[in-house]
Amino acid sequence: EMDFYTESDLGIEKRMAILLCV
Fold this sequence. Notes:
The protein is built from one helix and no strands. By secondary structure, the protein is mainly α.
């Protein structure tokens, strides 16, 4: 399961995806 990556573009996109999932 993906948690939090480095504070890069991917990190931001992943956080956005997680927020959308929730």
